[in-house]
Amino acid sequence: MAEMLKGGVIMDVVTPEQAKIAEDAGAVAVMALERVPADIRAQGGVARMSDPDLIDGIIDAVSIPVMAKARIGHFVEAQVLQSLGVDYIDESEVLTPADYTNHIDKFAFTVPFVCGATNLGEALRRITEGAAMIRSKGEAGTGDVSNATTHMRQIRAEIRKLSSLPEDELYVAAKELQAPYELVREVASRGKLPVVLFTAGGVATPPDAAMMMQLGAEGVFVGSGIFKSSNPGQRAEAIVKATTFHDDPDVLAKVSRGLGEAMVGINVENVAEPHRLAERGW
Amino acid sequence: MVAEPHIGVLALQGDVREHVVSLEECGARASPVRRAGELSTVDGIVIPGGESTTMSRLLEAFDLLEPLRRHLAEGMPAYGSCAGMILLAGKVLDGRPDQHQLGALDMIVRRNAFGRQVDSFEEDLDVTGVGGGPMHAVFIRAPWVESVEPAVEVLARVPETPAAGRAAGRIVAVRQGSVLATAFHSELTGDRRMHELFAGMVGAR
């Protein structure tokens, strides 16, 4: 049921004012959180679900859907978010995982979930648990889009590979993907996931968003990239336009002008491995 | 009657692909429309489900708003589902103050009338002009029609059942001349009768 978000941009916001800027710019939804990933990364400590007051404030500020993050495996945070009336829950590696073995049983909820994935097997396991939307993970809070590119290409390449396999090889493919055979067969025959596939992690500029769309994303999450830049309103609007006109370089050139400084960012390769968020989740 | 009507799907944001597939399955030629020039090449236009505020913003930013209004005023057939219904209406309640209306339907809609995502709702509806039994209708953060002018024909209302709650009796499908709108997502259920109706309207022009 996440089809209505397709072709759209979902923006991280930490205050009702930022949520309004995002809505003004044409965001299809906002992600309500206390700290954007870049700050979580800089400040360290355990990152948890946001304060319900903050989420309520953002729900009241905008008329577009509001998402909020729960820790991986923290089904009670998810219960709380559902009771607050959020429109989607992101079971997110950006927060500190609460369970290093199990993800949330998302079928136990009426609110839809979005989950991150770095490859097809991970995406299919999340769908099996009930995710209604998958996003490539990227490396959140870096402003470095390279991991999002890797994950997007990986997922799409694995889908293409499945589609090329003869029927009798799908059983072993399911074993290797560690995903149910029926789901693997469905992906092989349709050539796409049964849920929408968005991208996330490191998107900071209009061409970043457009590249992810050209690589096959159906929409874009922008975390720190907007409100860590020098001119958030204008950058947000430019990324919305770039997502719709992702295949039109003239539009991309036009919207990229005069945006001011992008977020400074850090190169993923300079992030020590234990601090890489994309490796959380399994 | 044109053998194969060419129908555009407004492709600024939303479930464009589902509408394209639905139209093609009805024997129409369908293509995405994002520019004023593309609008001039189609015989009818579908405005998909999505976020009406986002589409409104992009219509303005890419100079599509006035061309679309002009084509609609000149009688181009249009079908809007959910967000598309909101955009086609003359007036919206609970929208953003700067939200643009295409004004092709003389009615008032209430945005997000059914509530939030978790209040998404499914119901079987009898739709006037659609034969073959009730349609299964999916409402996601859907609008309903608050009131219509006499020129607008009401095609469907939510049945008056206890489960419908506040939505009971609300208008959810309308037609005014060559403009059709549903609060529900006919493009998601695999039932092509709404698109057949619209393709017929476009072909008959």
Automatic annotation (TrEMBL), chain A:
Pathway where it operates = Cofactor biosynthesis; pyridoxal 5'-phosphate biosynthesis
Catalytic positions? 69
Domain PdxS/SNZ N-terminal per the UniProt entry, residue ranges:
1-200
Alphabetical list of PROSITE patterns matching this protein: PDXS_SNZ_2
Question: Which sites bind D-glyceraldehyde 3-phosphate?
Answer: 153
- Which chemical reaction does it catalyze? aldehydo-D-ribose 5-phosphate + D-glyceraldehyde 3-phosphate + L-glutamine = pyridoxal 5'-phosphate + L-glutamate + phosphate + 3 H2O + H(+)
- InterPro entries membership: Aldolase_TIM (IPR013785), PdxS/SNZ (IPR001852), PdxS/SNZ_N (IPR033755), RibuloseP-bd_barrel (IPR011060)
Q: Where are the transmembrane segments?
A: none
Tell whether Lyase is among the UniProt keywords: yes
Do the record's keywords include Transcription regulation? no
Instruction: Spell out the molecular function terms from Gene Ontology.
Output: pyridoxal 5'-phosphate synthase (glutamine hydrolysing) activity
Per the UniProt record, one Pfam family is SOR_SNZ
> What are the alphabetically sorted keywords of the record?
Lyase, Pyridoxal phosphate, Schiff base
Q: How does it assemble?
A: Homohexamer and homododecamer. In the presence of PdxT, forms a dodecamer of heterodimers.
Q: Which PANTHER family match?
A: PYRIDOXAL 5'-PHOSPHATE SYNTHASE SUBUNIT SNZ1-RELATED
The protein in question is named Pyridoxal 5'-phosphate synthase subunit PdxS
Name the species this protein comes from.
Haloechinothrix alba
From TrEMBL, chain B:
For the biological process aspect of GO, one term held by this record is: L-glutamine catabolic process
Q: Where does L-glutamine bind?
A: 50-52, 111, 140-141
Q: Name one GO molecular function term.
A: glutaminase activity
Provide the alphabetized UniProt keywords: Glutamine amidotransferase, Hydrolase, Lyase, Pyridoxal phosphate
- What pathway, per the record? Cofactor biosynthesis; pyridoxal 5'-phosphate biosynthesis
Task: Identify the catalytic residues.
Answer: 82, 185, 187
EC number(s) per UniProt?
4.3.3.6, 3.5.1.2
**InterPro entries, sorted:** Class_I_gatase-like, PdxT/SNO, PdxT/SNO_CS
- Stated family: Belongs to the glutaminase PdxT/SNO family.
Q: How does it assemble?
A: In the presence of PdxS, forms a dodecamer of heterodimers. Only shows activity in the heterodimer.
Entry's PANTHER family?
Answer: PYRIDOXAL 5'-PHOSPHATE SYNTHASE SUBUNIT SNO, PYRIDOXAL 5'-PHOSPHATE SYNTHASE SUBUNIT SNO1-RELATED
Instruction: Show the NCBIfam families listed in the entry.
Output: PLP_synth_Pdx2
Q: Spell out the protein name for this chain.
A: Pyridoxal 5'-phosphate synthase subunit PdxT
Give the source species.
Haloechinothrix alba
Tell me the gene name: pdxT
